[in-house]
Amino acid sequence: MQDTRPLLLETDFPPIQRQQLQTLQVNLGYLCNLSCTHCHVDAGPTRTELMDRATIDTVLEYLSVKGIGTIDLTGGSPEMNPDFRYLVERAADMGVLVMDRCNPTILVEPGYEYLPAFFAEHQVMVVASMPCYSEQNVDKQRGKGVYRDSVEGLQKLNAVGYGQSDSDLTLNLVYNPDEPILPPSQEGLQEDYKRELLADHGIVFNDLYALANMPISRFGARLLAKDTYHDYMTLLRDSFSDENLETVMCRSLISVDYQGYVYDCDFNQMLELPLLVSDKPKTHLQALLNTDLEGLPITIGEHCYGCTAGQGSSCGGALN
Predict the structure, then answer these.
(1) pLDDT, tens digit (0-9, with 9 covering 90-100), for 239-259
(2) Measured distance CA(228)–CA(129) in Å, rounded
(3) Which domains does the chain have, with CATH numbers?
(4) pTM strictly above 0.70
């Protein structure tokens, strides 16, 4: 697979610094029941990298020591980590808001049927990937039958109260294009999603996050293979919005890989661009228990233009 990393290291992206840390984003491993064409972590069913119990305990210790309000669980499919329930239960008991970046097909996989009720019991905020409301587009991007299973998974979440108007259980969906283009207006797209999913499947949800694809990993390799990398980077650079710099996710979030090493965001994690704390090649979360990160510089690269182009893109969707 061709690698865009050497093309992303030199950049004129504006320098940015950390603000107060609010969210700990934790990658529980690269194991997933799908192998999506856009996946920036190269996750799939054959990956074996998983966070172990000792590292999860360090994550819990960090949450407690730092008083962080939100833990954002990612993968792969984070639910496939054998200690997923252990982490969620203990974080929730601490009063931490748990966000699960859920591929909704996992909810219909054998052995994972417990998840909707488990999520509801622990007030987990579910952020479910649903790259389109069209079956043809979803199956093209994620594989045959994925749309059908995604719909069934979302219906199971609705059945326990997620997304319902009289419930405090939050279900947000995530859209991202499968082509080298910027997402359309998040507000307008959300209206389309809500109308179509309700009409076709009776599905309701709270908000839609529209994300731009980063020119890294599988998506980056596709750009290079199709000779569209430079065109896409030109689009991102030409669409740069200075106002998005104030709200990019890396200012208030750090990303932890499955081994416990720390990065400014999960894109930097995949590019092996570590958080700049010392002159060490990379820093473990355990070493940061007594460190204040506010004011430190954020490691940047050309891919950062993906977060600041147009309406902006972050793990929470559009920035403006």
Answers:
(1) 999 999 989 999 999 999 999
(2) 25
(3) 18-213+242-296 (3.20.20.70)
(4) yes
